[in-house]
Amino acid sequence: MTGPADRAGFIVAIDGPAASGKGSIATFLARRLGLPVLDTGLLYRAVGVAVEQAGGDLDDDSTAGAAARGLDLDDLGSDALRTRAAGEAASRVAVHTAVRNALLEAQRAFARRPGGAILDGRDIGTVVAPEAPCKLYVTATPETRARRRHAQLRAQGESASLEDVLDDIRRRDARDGDRAAAPMVRAPDAALLDTTDLDIDAAFDAALRIVEASRGRWEKS
């Protein structure tokens, strides 16, 4: 029997739709566990923003793929990546196989960091790190997620009606779930965490219990 020292580190794969709370949960877990964290959605947002800034077509596979291959993974701190428009652009470029292939190895390399890592996105538990010993699928109703995203956008100074944000959420859900390349689905072995009726502290506590139970099983295996 092998122990933790003989294998890859403890990987936490967190998937789920937009505004479900997975990013906040990933950041919280990273601080509690002392692990590096990667918001993979920022990669796709950066690709979408790069295509738009270059005057390219978000729906063109080769254009978006070229932007993904030229992406600087150290340049993900721009506020431009946090906007509603960047989220829409990310959802559009994420359907392209060329984009997903270009970003896949970078994500896998992050997951293989010594000691482990936490990644959140749409296909972490199914494609990026299917071997992860801990997988969560974080979700909430579209209406709840729209209210959260609407509040976030207002705090950032963006004006958008709640109805428009809800339409964005539903459109992104359909696009992410229906794409041919790595569609957003719950991994069969992922724990489901529905945050619809949970405040942020309750969501954090629930996620931590899931992760600690998974880590205990992993350490004993």
Summarize the structure.
With 221 residues, this protein is an alpha/beta fold. Helix content is 53%, strand content 11%.
**CATH architectural group:** 3-Layer(aba) Sandwich
Domain unit count: 1
Largest sheet: 5 strands, parallel
Shape: globular
Task: State the fourth-level CATH superfamily.
Answer: P-loop containing nucleotide triphosphate hydrolases
Secondary-structure class: alpha/beta
Oligomer: single chain
In CATH, the topology is named: Rossmann fold
Mean pLDDT comes to 93
Please tell me how large the radius of gyration is: 17 Å
Strand adjacency order, main sheet: 2-3-1-4-5
Number of DSSP E strands: 5
Q: What is the H/E string?
A: EHEHHHHEHEHHEH
Number of helices: 9
Unreliable stretches, pLDDT < 50, 5 or more residues? 1-6
Distance between the termini: 7 Å
Name of the CATH first level? Alpha Beta
Question: How does this structure look, described?
Answer:
By secondary structure, the chain is of the alpha/beta class. It has a single domain, classed as Rossmann fold (3-Layer(aba) Sandwich). The protein is 53% helix and 11% strand. The longest helix is centred in the C-terminal third of the chain and has 21 residues.
Descriptors:
single chain; 221 residues; alpha/beta; Rossmann fold; 5-stranded parallel beta sheet; 9 helices; disordered N terminus
Write the layout of secondary structure elements.
Elements lengths: L9 E6 L6 H12 L3 E3 H14 L7 H9 L14 H10 L3 H15 L4 E6 L2 H5 L5 E6 L2 H14 L6 H17 L12 E4 L5 H21 L1
Parallel strand pairs: 1-3, 1-4, 2-3, 4-5
